[in-house]
Amino acid sequence: MGAERARRGLCAILLLSLSLGSALAAACLKPVYLSFDAGHMEQAPLIAEVLKRQQVQVTFFASNQSTRIGGGALSNHWAPWWKERALEGHEFASNGYEHVVWRADERSVEPRFRVRPMVGAFAHREFTWDAKKYCAQLAYANERLEDFTGKKALPLFRAPDGRTSRKLLAAARACGFAHVGWASAGLLGDELPSERFSNEALLQKALRDIRSGDILMAHLGVWTRKDPWAPTVLEPLIVGLKERGFCFETLRQHPDYSAWIARNEPAPGKP
User: pTM for the complete prediction?
Assistant: First the structure.
């Protein structure tokens, strides 16, 4: 009888050890948060293939940037591509529908901003917008993503070029959007001129400098770079980071944003 109890106890300990081992294996102990802003989309299919092959989930910040085949990244042409990414478990957030760059705060009682849309009918012209109009741009990008994917976009945004002010960030938070930047080492450099910053140099710098918790940022194609970044850097970067013990999570899991998302994300079935 005592031997049987001992055997059962040993089995229970072994099962518990296996369970704990599986939990530790599944836990992301050195997370990094890879994100992509929209671009000319020429590398978008390749990027999707790499992410699927490497089983990495990321956060896409979308705007209606012009693409190489005409139309914008949030035009109906790209709806199937966004839908497939949603089915793979990626997350989505706003880069502002017209990729609107903040230029300056206006001196006014109510928040008003000088801005420059970079795409659309009024591209490269400067305007003064109030907070409501700026927030509408953020919201419309998310609405387009939700139409394509059937999945609620995160209540997050990334300001084009990372240009913000305290007033702008406060106005965005008041309408339900928290801003997401990137780590210094996480600026992967795909927007830099390839004549001065080779793909190999950018890869080695990223592998050397990235640390646990960093938000990484690249684009779905950059017009000004002659030697495209993603075809030669993205997969070696992911593989190299994995070999160094890093793992990949979306911004839904980021400790700086998870509570905000839980508070501001609509409940299922609600608008």
Answer: 0.88
